[in-house]
Each structure stands twice: as structure tokens, then as C-alpha cells.
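Thread: "does anyone have the structure for this chain?"

Original post by V.I.:
We have the sequence but no experimental structure in hand. Need at least a predicted one for the grant figures.
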Amino acid sequence: MFMLKFVHQIRLEHNNLLLNVAKIGGSVGVKGAVRLSLTTDSPSTRLVKGAVFEVEGSKKSLEVANIRRQGMSYIACFEGVDTRNLADELRGSVLQVDVDLSENGNDEFYYVALVGLEVREIATNSVIGSVKSVVNYPAQDLLEVALSGSNKKNSVLIPFVKQIVCTVNLQEKYLEVDLPDGLLDEAY
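Reply from O.Q.:
Generated one for you, C-alpha cells below.
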């Protein structure tokens, strides 16, 4: 089974993703601590002492001096932010980290890494289109594939399961599918 990671991202270039990790909320106390609203896929590994984040839309970076969980949120202190006034200036800032898409496990993919991949059908050895989006359903994820060529239909939903999606090659930007008979007839 494939594992997909949905994340709030800003940009994708080369093989890296600038990933939104958290949004800074209000200050907590008088020593510069702030409440974080998380958007990360992995808080226990991303929100650690010493982690450095870029601040969206600026050249500023923040290093975590201390972090703790409080209920459903996290409280963070950053190096150089030691007063309530400095913490209040950060309110609304989005913390980002650069992620290498190739660092996932063999069967783990970020949604955004799949969008735009060329889709090749193994049976006919032809390109049928490209991934337009990833749709999350309870039973499985589906790839919405924008069909190319003379097909009169616009797109088709292909289950993102190993029985159908045989190969995902992020470096060469394609995936190979072994489609069940009639699947392309159901395109919409």
C-alpha cells in the first residue's frame, strides 16, 4: 500500500518542497513564547529544539530554543525572541522548512510531488496523460489524470494502489499504470 502525505506547501522546485510547518498565533506569557497552529505532517520530528525555520515572505529565520506541547497545540520559544512585544510581532507568520522529496520511504509520497507526473500505460506502452490532482477518499487515494491525445473525455480517476500504479519515478517525472479493462471508458 502506498502512503501519501498531504501538506500545505508553497513552492516546489527541483526536488525540494518549501513546506509550511506552523502558523504563529498569539504570545504566551511575557518571555517571548508563542502558540503554534500546526500544518505539518510530522510534528514530533519537525518541532524540536534547534530546528531552524524560514519565515514565509521574508529572509528571516527562527531557531527553536524550547518547545512543549500544551493540549492540542504547541508552545515555542525562539532564539532572540525574549519579550512579549517581539513575540507579538511574529503573530500570523508562517514557519517553513525545505524538504527533499526523495527522502521519503519507497512507498511514501507527498501529494504535490505526484501532481504533474506523466502517466504511462504499461499494456500499450503509451502516455495517457498527466496527474492533475490527488483525491483523498476513505477507501483509497485516487489520482485524477488529465487525459491527453484524441480522447474526448477530460480526465479519469485512477486508484492509487500498487495493483494499478506499478511504478512511481519522481526523478524522471512519470508513473506507470496497469489499468483494468474499461477504466478509461469511465473517463469524465
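V.I.: this helps a lot. The chain has three helices and 15 strands.
O.Q.: and The chain has two domains: 7-103, 115-186.
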